[in-house]
Design a protein that fits this description.
Elements: H1 2-22, E1 29-32, H2 44-60, H3 64-68, E2 78-81, E3 84-87, H4 89-99, E4 108-120, E5 123-133, E6 141-152, E7 155-166
Parallel strand pairs: 2-7
Antiparallel strand pairs: 1-4, 2-3, 4-5, 5-6, 6-7
Length: 168
């Protein structure tokens, strides 16, 4: 599975390099939640920021369907959670349903930091640092996510995601 993760990382790097090589100069938009001002305009990064905040809100309301609305509803969605590879929205959704048959065990997601970068009007890369606080005590779960997002007619959606868990 490590080869798959390496391949995905390589694809992300190639994607970013290709984005840079296409134009003479790209106008890069950046956002870091540490100094973000939510609601100040609707730039690409602000739109992505709002989507991710909405997903966190859905998670905390135990609304798995709302949370999954942030992902591209396609068989071509790619999500890697540690070494588990999910091809397609339905596969990822089924995995969350199996993992949280009791929605109360989803815990509370606490977004620690979010960085977003976009160099085109319809694509973005986001890096998230978050933790899940268990509902009845216990040790929090910490993770980082790397996501590629694309703008569709219905709005911004995550098309590729990778999550890695760590201990602080």
């Amino acid at each position: 599975m490590a080869g798959t993760t390496t391949s995905i990382t390589g694809c992300v790097i190639v994607f970013l390099l290709a984005q840079t090589a296409i134009g003479e100069e790209l106008s890069v938009q950046r956002l870091d939640s540490i100094n973000a001002e939510p609601g100040t305009g609707q730039t690409v990064v602000q739109q992505v920021y709002q989507l991710i905040l909405k997903m966190v809100d859905c998670w905390n309301k135990k609304d798995l369907d709302g949370y999954m609305n942030g992902f591209w509803k396609s068989d071509d969605l790619l999500a890697v959670i540690e070494s588990e590879v999910h091809w397609g929205w339905a596969d990822l959704y089924a995995s969350f349903q199996r993992g949280y048959p009791d929605r109360d065990k989803m815990g509370k997601m606490d977004l620690q930091r979010l960085q977003i970068r976009s160099s085109t009007p319809d694509t973005a890369v986001a890096l998230c640092w978050w933790r899940i606080l268990p509902p009845r005590g216990g040790s929090p779960v910490y993770a980082t996510d790397t996501m590629l997002l694309q703008k569709f007619a219905e709005g911004w959606r995550i098309t590729v995601a990778h999550s890695s868990f760590f201990e602080p």
